[in-house]
Amino acid sequence: MSDCPAPPDLPAIARTIRRDIIELAHRSKSPHVGSALSCVDILIALYFDRLRLDPWPERDIFIMSKAHAAMALYSTLAARGIMSRELLAGYYVDDGTLPAHLERFSAPGIEASTGSLGHGFSMGLGMAYGFKKKAVARQVFTLIGDGESQEGSVWEGALFAPRLGLDNFTAIMDRNDLQGYGRPNEICAFESVREKWQAFG
Q1: CATH value of 10-200 in 3.40.190.10, 3.30.420.10, 3.40.50.970, 3.30.390.10
Q2: Which pLDDT belongs to residue 181?
Q3: What pTM did the predictor assign?
């Protein structure tokens, strides 16, 4: 359970975030609107219910591996009060501070530079392994896209995590059934995804 002040109006927050995404995309003429919109509810569940964020130095970690959905994370961080809403004006514009793909330190709450698909998953595993080795009670969550999950590094990580007992790591797949050049099942065989992950443990 998170430490979010209760009870926030989550439907109103979701509407604000979705409106932000549309406005940011329109103003900056940036792509990836669908990918950002499809993960809004996931981000709200994490940031307003699941993630432990206080005290900040001991917070849980969230890594957006599908970094092209950056608009959704920026707006969520603003809605949660982690970053200022004024920073949204600097999204993907000349001399702006918020890039189209996530860069660590570009804004408060961005835990890793991601964008090479599959790498955020592996970074999250590494952080979780480090916390486990040091007996630090921090959870790591990572969000991957269904198209992204075709990357070999994701499957290597899926083999790695259960064998090291990383019960402090949670991977979430945004199954929006879309990727850059078509639907995941048209690009690469994508059947029985749940069963495959369960088989890894």
Answers
A1: 3.40.50.970
A2: 64
A3: 0.91
